[in-house]
UniProtKB/TrEMBL annotation:
<keyword id="KW-0324">Glycolysis</keyword>
<keyword id="KW-0312">Gluconeogenesis</keyword>
<dbReference type="GO" id="GO:0016853">
    <property type="term" value="F:isomerase activity"/>
</dbReference>
<comment type="pathway">
    <text>Carbohydrate degradation; glycolysis; D-glyceraldehyde 3-phosphate and glycerone phosphate from D-glucose: step 2/4.</text>
</comment>
<dbReference type="InterPro" id="IPR011051">
    <property type="entry name" value="RmlC_Cupin_sf"/>
</dbReference>
<comment type="similarity">
    <text>Belongs to the archaeal-type GPI family.</text>
</comment>
<protein>
    <recommendedName>
        <fullName>glucose-6-phosphate isomerase</fullName>
        <ecNumber>5.3.1.9</ecNumber>
    </recommendedName>
</protein>
<dbReference type="Pfam" id="PF06560">
    <property type="entry name" value="GPI"/>
</dbReference>
<feature type="domain" description="Glucose-6-phosphate isomerase prokaryote">
    <location>
        <begin position="46"/>
        <end position="191"/>
    </location>
</feature>
<dbReference type="InterPro" id="IPR010551">
    <property type="entry name" value="G6P_isomerase_prok"/>
</dbReference>
<dbReference type="InterPro" id="IPR014710">
    <property type="entry name" value="RmlC-like_jellyroll"/>
</dbReference>
<keyword id="KW-0413">Isomerase</keyword>
Amino acid sequence: MIETGLGITFDETTHEFVYPTAVFGPDHAEQRHLKDILHSMADHAATGPEIVYSIAMDVGLEKDRSDLLERELLFGIVAYADGSIGKEPVKSQGHIHALSNACQMSTPEVYEIWSGEAIIYMQERATDNPGRCYAVRAKAGEVVIVPPGWAHCTINASKTERMVFGAWCVRDFGFEYDDVRAHNGLAYYPKFDDLGRIIWEQNPSYQADKLIEKSPREYLEFALDSKRPIYQQYEEDKSRFDFVVRPDLCKDKWVNYLP
């Protein structure tokens, strides 16, 4: 994995994260099993890894714990299995971030890929017309920001390599699934072709226009440094990710947002 400043590793046999002495985290990772996500797949009877991904929410350096609590800011890490689920890659359930009490609106999420390769898929809405749809392919060390209110999911772009990422989110995070589930998932399904490449199949439940595939960009409007791990950037400037908790204070940045 990339150097993050946290020194966290993942135990492949136990599916647990391992923390250095100076780092806090949950005693056990939360597991998402195949049965938990099949409803979001194109093939509801597909087979794949039993543990699809492992989640540890609220991790960080012990010295930062009180500041993170005060800011209502939370750092989480997730490890995705390799392999596939039928013809589809391993991925999360699609969802929208619920309203946060910190700002009374949906909140963004800042992803940083730690190992492997990810696709962060996002669409403006989960209504019949999903608006703009993007698939952002990110490699280890790259950052992707999902804006408030957008429906999204996280995809392991590789059949052969586990994918791990870290992310900043609001402490009272919550997920809305109803609209996504009513449409049998998001507007595009990723699938592996015969050569193991990701291709996209449109979900007929939506009136989608087109899917834009792209690479991550630099987020200069949020003063992020593309060459520094995001936890280290928080350490250097504790207020740098306050926009995650209070996106209402920078509404202009979310207008016509480009992932």
